Structure formats: structure tokens, C-alpha cells
């Protein structure tokens, strides 16, 4: 017997035998629901046998047989009525457990978001994606409104706006819809400089309406799920948007709740993060006011957006304390869940010069697990060389936290995701491996590049070129080389400009005589502080592909 726990009130299972019942009673189950019709297979006991044995053990029973693949509205209503009044917890079974979890999920759909239902199914060992539309509706049957566009883009961040603009710059006649519920659009690379006292937070934000290209339909809604077999996106409220081509770039989810106690203390008690618009100014407040004590900076396991940002916060803070003459009274600790300071070794020597300048203590293989803001304590899981894990505790006066990160829930539980929850794309073309009319770029794709705005700037023209080729509106295909850029702000006025592609291959944009990215540079600082923001707002988001021309691949006849 295989069981899958849904919650404290119900679990589901495949075919029960009479001999299974004593164990189930001992585990604390109070009710047994049977959803397999008698005589469906030669290997099953009749419900009468199960009923007699269960009642002898003091278990409540219910017989609600359902034909495989034909769960009706009436079946769901009958299950809901029985489940409401049955002693809990319930063990519901059928041949495989699928009908049981289908009944439960459909009666729960009215009050439970679709991604949560799909996730519950995955955790219990069942794929509910075939019920996506029905679950999203939160009811059985009824008309569902549908709108259609040639291209649908999910996500109004850097990747989504850039992709829309790159498409329109090539073919202004395209019918494009962009789906995003947010009112605001952020220049997130600027938040490091907000936390360093260089930028104001207000300079990094604009309204979403002001950055969506003219001619693109903005659907201000959240995505609930996907129906790729029917070329449809399901919105919350069970509206459908159909497409010929789909571009998925919803960004990445910051999982603040994964660290015990963090949500209760963020933004106070000296706990901050440059990964949030509202907290980056607090970082600068803490840094500018700290005159002595301990400053702790953390980096979670990869992948994360802008892998250099956690240490940028450390460098800019250390620089301020150095310039203020208080560095000798402040201890800096950098706790990194990874095993190295930076993933591309060519940039490490320059970074280590600043680690030494600021007397920073490096702690590798340390993952933040818990924070007590009032007590000013933090705990880390330290993975040792033999694989064992020990708990490490430290105090702090300033704690800069970067949380674990993963794809949004509606992506992670969708048919678009790989086994680890990231959108499964060809790393060269950014085309989905299983659904050829779907592309993905930005932070949620599983292409092995750095998750930075610079990567999205290079990816958007590739996706636009390849999508138009597929629509037979373009004459060429393009390849993405994995380019990503991380301007590592090592001090106020100098940047180590890390530029690299797949496999850590260096991909400098400028000749070495002009700008050597492996050395701290004033010119790279000017690029970061003065040039990149207008390049972002007026170039990338407007379809001007400065330093982002895609590599062409010779046209091949389609099969």
C-alpha cells in the first residue's frame, strides 16, 4: 500500500487490503473512504469486506465509487458532504489514489490557490496538472472567457519588457499581451547603490504603465497555471489567454520565510537586505550609523539573482567605514553557503584584495537558518568536508541577509518546469525543450548563466529573433552564449567588472587597454553609476540593443 499525506485531515492511498486496516487504525486514522467501484479488478477486495473489518476496528467508512477518469460534479459534491462530517483523519483510496486526491482537490479548489493544490499533489506523489483548468475555476463546468494574442509574455520585469520591445523593434505589427499584476517596475541593480548611500530608492522605480511598450496589451492579472497542450495560460479567476507563442519570464521568488525568525525582524533590530526596495535605504541607515561592533553579511545557496550582490553590500559598507575612520572598530564577517568567493576564478584575486583591506572574515559552506533580531543572534548550518553539518551561532550589530531563492510557485508546479522547478529550456536558443512554441528568459529559466539584468539584456534579442523565425516573420535564428555581467562595487568609485558566459568563459565588452575587468576600475564605476541606469531605462526597455546584438545562426529549412 502506498500512501500520500495531503494534510492533517486526509491522506490518500492505492488499493487497500483487509490486512492493512489494523496498521491504519494504529496510525490514528478514524475514517476510510473507498472510491473504487467493486469488481473493477480481480485483485481488489469488495467494499463489504473492507467495511466489516474497518468497523470491527472502530473505523468510520464511506463508499463513494467513481469511474476512472470520470469524476463528475455530483461525485465531488458527495465527497465534500461525507468529508465534512467524517471523523478525521481520513484515509481515502482507489486503485492508485488518483481518484481520491482528485475528489479532495476539486472540493478544495474554491478556497485553495491552484499552485498550492498542484504542489500538494506533487508532495503526495500525484500529478494534478491534467486538472489545471478545472482546479483554477474552483468549480465544475461553466463558461470560461478566452482572449487570444499572437505572442503572450508572462512577467513585466526587465526580461519581459525587453523581450516585448525587442519583438516590436523587429515587427511592429505583432499582437502582444504582457501579463503582470504589479503596478511598479524596479531597476533592481540599483538597490546595491541605494544600500551604499549612492542612489535614492526613488530613482530605481517607475510605474509599470510607463515602461510597457506602446501597442502591447497589459493584462493586469496573476497567472494561476498553464495548459500548454492547448496553448493557453490560466489567470487567477479562471480567465484564459491563448497564444501562438509564449514567452515566460516571471522572475525569481525570494523565500524570506525559509529562514526561521527572519520575517519577524526584517527592517528593524539591525536586520536588513538590499534585495528589497523598502529595505535598501535601511541598509544605508545602519551602515552610516554603525561606529563599532560586528557586521554580518550572508549569501544563500545558488542559484540566486545577481550572485555578486551579497558581497557588494559588504564591500561598500567596508569602504564607508574605512573612509569614516571606524573600520578598526568593526568586525566584518561574510557567511557564504557556497565554497568559493566568486564562481569565476579570474576575478577572485582582485576581490581578495578588498577582503583583506576591510579585514573581512570569510566563512564558506555556512547557510543562514535562523535569526533572533531582538537578541541580535544568527545561526548557520556549517557543512563540513565529510558532509556532516554543525550549527554555528554568532552575534551581530548589523545583519545583511540574502534569502534563498527559487522560481515562483506557479512555475515550480507547472508542466514547464524541470525536476528542480526551473523552466526547462535549451540554453542556446532559450526555447522550451518539450513545448517548442514556448520560450523563457531571465531568472526563472534553467539556462546555466548568471541571473542578472545584463543576462536578460542579451537574452531578449535572442528570444525575439528565434520566435519571429518560428513565426516565419524572420530570416535568421540566434544563439545565446550565456553572457552575464556583475559589476562588483568594491569601493565607492571603483568596480571589478565581471563579464562571463557559459562555463565561466570570459566575455569582456571592452578591449583590455580601455577597461580590464579583472582589476578595480574607475571607468567601470562610471559605467555602473552613470551609464547603466539610462542604458536600462532608455535602451534595454525600449528595444535599443546597445552591446546586445545577438549572434546569428545560419537559417535552416524547417522540417
UniProtKB/TrEMBL annotation:
Alphabetized GO MF terms: transferase activity
Record keywords: Transferase
Beta-lactamase hydrolase-like protein phosphatase-like domain segment(s): 7-109
SUPFAM superfamilies per UniProt: FAD/NAD(P)-binding domain (SSF51905)
Transmembrane segments: none
Keyword Signal: no
Cross-referenced InterPro entries: BLH_phosphatase-like (IPR005939), FAD/NAD-bd_sf (IPR036188), FAD/NAD-binding_dom (IPR023753), Prot-tyrosine_phosphatase-like (IPR029021), Sulphide_quinone_reductase (IPR015904)
Domain FAD/NAD(P)-binding: 149-269
Statement: the UniProt record of this protein carries the keyword Transferase: yes
Name this polypeptide is given: TIGR01244 family sulfur transferase
Native organism: Methylophilus aquaticus
Amino acid at each position: 500500500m502506498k500512501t500520500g499525506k495531503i494534510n492533517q485531515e486526509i491522506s490518500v492511498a492505492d488499493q487497500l487490503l483487509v490486512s492493512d486496516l489494523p496498521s491504519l487504525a494504529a496510525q490514528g486514522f478514524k475514517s476510510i473512504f473507498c472510491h473504487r467501484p467493486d469488481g473493477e479488478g480481480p485483485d481488489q477486495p469488495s467494499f463489504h469486506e473492507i467495511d466489516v473489518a474497518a468497523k470491527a476496528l472502530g473505523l468510520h467508512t464511506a463508499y463513494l465509487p467513481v469511474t476512472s477518469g470520470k469524476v463528475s460534479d455530483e461525485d465531488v459534491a458527495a465527497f465534500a458532504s461525507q468529508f465534512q462530517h467524517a471523523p478525521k483523519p481520513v484515509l481515502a483510496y482507489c486503485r492508485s489514489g488518483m481518484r481520491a486526491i482528485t475528489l479532495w482537490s476539486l472540493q478544495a479548489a474554491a478556497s485553495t490557490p491552484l499552485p498550492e493544490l498542484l504542489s500538494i499533489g506533487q508532495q503526495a506523489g500525484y500529478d494534478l496538472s491534467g486538472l489545471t483548468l478545472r482546479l483554477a475555476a474552483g468549480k465544475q463546468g461553466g463558461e470560461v472567457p478566452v482572449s487570444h494574442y499572437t505572442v503572450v509574455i508572462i512577467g513585466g520585469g526587465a526580461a519581459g519588457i525587453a523581450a516585448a520591445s525587442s519583438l516590436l523593434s523587429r515587427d511592429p505589427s505583432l499582437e502582444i499581451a504582457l501579463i503582470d499584476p504589479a503596478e511598479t517596475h524596479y531597476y533592481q541593480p540599483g538597490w546595491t547603490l541605494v544600500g551604499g548611500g549612492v542612489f535614492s530608492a526613488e530613482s530605481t522605480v517607475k510605474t509599470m504603465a510607463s515602461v510597457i511598450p506602446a501597442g502591447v496589451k497589459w493584462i493586469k492579472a496573476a497567472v494561476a497555471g498553464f495548459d500548454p497542450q492547448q496553448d493557453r495560460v490560466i489567470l487567477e479567476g479562471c480567465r484564459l489567454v491563448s497564444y501562438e507563442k509564449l514567452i515566460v519570464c516571471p522572475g525569481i521568488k525570494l523565500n524570506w520565510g525559509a529562514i526561521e525568525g527572519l520575517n519577524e525582524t526584517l527592517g528593524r533590530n539591525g536586520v536588513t537586505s538590499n534585495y528589497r526596495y523598502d529595505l535598501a535605504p535601511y541598509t544605508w541607515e545602519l551602515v552610516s550609523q554603525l561606529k563599532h561592533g560586528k557586521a554580518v553579511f550572508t549569501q544563500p545557496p545558488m542559484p540566486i539573482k545577481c550572485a555578486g550582490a551579497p558581497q557588494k553590500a559588504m564591500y561598500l559598507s567596508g569602504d564607508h567605514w574605512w573612509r569614516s575612520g571606524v573600520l578598526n572598530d568593526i568586525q566584518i564577517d561574510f557567511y557564504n553557503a557556497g565554497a568559493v568567493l566568486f564562481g569565476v576564478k579570474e576575478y577572485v584575486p582582485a576581490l581578495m584584495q578588498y577582503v583583506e583591506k576591510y579585514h573581512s572574515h570569510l566563512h564558506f559552506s555556512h547557510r543562514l537558518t535562523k535569526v533572533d533580531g531582538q537578541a541580535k543572534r544568527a545561526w548557520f548550518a556549517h557543512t563540513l568536508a565529510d558532509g556532516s553539518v554543525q550549527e554555528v551561532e554568532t552575534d551581530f550589530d548589523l545583519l545583511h541577509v540574502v534569502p534563498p531563492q527559487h522560481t515562483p510557485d506557479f512555475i515550480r508546479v507547472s508542466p514547464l518546469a524541470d525536476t528542480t522547478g526551473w523552466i526547462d529550456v535549451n540554453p542556446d536558443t532559450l526555447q522550451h525543450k518539450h513545448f517548442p512554441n514556448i520560450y523563457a528568459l531571465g531568472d526563472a529559466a534553467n539556462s546555466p548563466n548568471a541571473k542578472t539584468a545584463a543576462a536578460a539584456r542579451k537574452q531578449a534579442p535572442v528570444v525575439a529573433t528565434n520566435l519571429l523565425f518560428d513565426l516565419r516573420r524572420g530570416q535568421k535564428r540566434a544563439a545565446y552564449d550565456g553572457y552575464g555581467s556583475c559589476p562588483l562595487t568594491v569601493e565607492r568609485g571603483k568596480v571589478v567588472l565581471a563579464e562571463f558566459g557559459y562555463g565561466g568563459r570570459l566575455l569582456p565588452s571592452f578591449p583590455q587597454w580601455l577597461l580590464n575587468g579583472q582589476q578595480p576600475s574607475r571607468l567601470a564605476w562610471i559605467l555602473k553609476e552613470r551609464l547603466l541606469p539610462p542604458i536600462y531605462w532608455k535602451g534595454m526597455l525600449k528595444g535599443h540593443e546597445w552591446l546586445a546584438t545577438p549572434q546569428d545562426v545560419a537559417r535552416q529549412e524547417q522540417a
